[in-house]
Amino acid sequence: MTVRPPGFGRTGADRREKARDLLVETALGLFAERGYIGVRVEDIAKAAGISRATFYKYFSEREEILAELFARLLGRDPVPPPEGSVEETPERIERLLVGTAERMLRDEVLARFVYTLPIRHAALLGEGARPPALDTVEGMLAEASAAGVVRSDVPSALLAAHVGRAYEAAMRDWAEGRSDDAPAQVRLLLDLAFRGISGG
User: Fold this and answer.
1) What is the pTM of this model?
2) Which of 31, 145, 165, 178 could form a disulfide with 173 if both were Cys (CB 3.0 to 4.6 A apart)?
3) CB-based contact 61:55 (threshold 8 Å)
4) Would the CA dihedral through 98, 175, 63, 29 be positive or negative?
């Protein structure tokens, strides 16, 4: 017989949320220890002290937990652009993305797990695999392109993808131990990216 932790098998949205949180936190611990591929639903259920059937009351598959972890780290809500003029777009983008990195580092275990995944599972997660701040960057670059601050001969979506890849590479460098300071690595790689998209 499986002993259930407090909150499991009871009704109520609050208890359900606590049970989901317990499963997500348990899964994160296992993923960080064994890697995503090395953890099965059975492993998560056992470590949480529940049955596999009970797991499926809260999540239909392991990938739902992965999606929840991404949402917790990357955020779900749109991010407003930092204050400043269109001429300051590169500096504003740097402030935005360094701030995003600093926020992510508040949960270092989660950030390291997400950025060391060999595949970010974008096919499973769709837009959930991309920080909302990068949507803001795309809008800022469209405005800057129209004003001639950044290259106007390249679509702003492509400019944003270039900046986004620099951000993602910086976070992976930190997560995989090639950099001790994620915000500094973000600044460095963004500087290199901005040199490739500057207008004029």
Assistant:
1) 0.80
2) 178
3) no
4) negative
3-state secondary structure of 164: helix
**Tens digits of per-residue pLDDT, 98-121?**
999 999 999 999 999 888 887 655
7-16: long-range pairs with CB below 8 Å, 24+ = 8/50, 8/54, 9/54, 16/58
Tokens of 123: 């096919």
15 touches 7 (CB < 8 A): yes
CB 131 within 8 A of CB 49: no
Q: What domains lie within the chain, and their CATH numbers? A: 13-60 (1.10.10.60), 75-197 (1.10.357)
- Chain Cα centroid distance, residue 48: 24
